[in-house]
Amino acid sequence: MLSSLSKLENSKEYKSWKNDNKNSYLCSCFYLDGEGDWQFDFYLPKKDKIKTFIVENNEVKGLVDSKIFKKDDSVLKKLDLNKVKVTFENAVDIVDELKNSKYKNENIIKRIIILQNIDKEVWNITYLTSNFNILNIKVDASSGKVLSEKLDSVMRFKAS
């Protein structure tokens, strides 16, 4: 993740954008298993929007600013990478160990991994399973402690 972020921060596209958006800040890092690309989201407080950059190999792609899906008028919290002591690989290992001990019958199809600030820096990891379940586990990015775990059926989310 950090090498992809470094590629982003050293790119001409990002530097130019950041120069025009000095008050923006990193609010989340997103990884979809199988895609191999990191997505970095920056909050634009003045616009109350998100700017997303995707790092594919050595190429940086900036997406159009998008609206934020949130419940109220709160602002997105800054992601402080200095507080992240648990690496991406360690977080996945922690979640895999929990999954293998408590949810043995759940076979993983896809992993969605987000590093974000939810009152503190958190690895928010969601597994989609072949049993049509969603396993969500939040891991403290500083200590590695499992903060929450929840197994839900995908069918619970179906449209009525």
- Give the beta-strand count: 9
Overall spatial form? globular
- Report the C-alpha radius of gyration, rounded: 17 Å
Strand content: 35-45%
- By secondary-structure content and strand pairing, the structural class works out as alpha+beta
Helix content: 10-25%
* SSE run: HHEEEEEHEEEE
Q: Low-confidence parts lasting 5 or more residues at pLDDT below 50?
A: none
Q: Kindly report how far apart the N and C termini lie.
A: 38 Å
Instruction: Give average pLDDT, whole number.
Output: 90
The biggest sheet, with number of strands, parallel, antiparallel or mixed sense and barrel status, is: 9 strands, antiparallel
- How many alpha or pi helices? 3
Report what the structure shows.
With 160 residues, the chain is an alpha+beta fold. Helices cover 20% and strands 40% of the residues. It has helices at 2-9, 12-20, 88-102; strands at 25-32, 38-44, 49-56, 59-62, 66-67, 108-117, 121-129, 133-140, 146-153. Strands 1, 2, 3, 4, 5, 6, 7, 8 and 9 form a nine-stranded antiparallel beta sheet that branches. The mean pLDDT is 90.
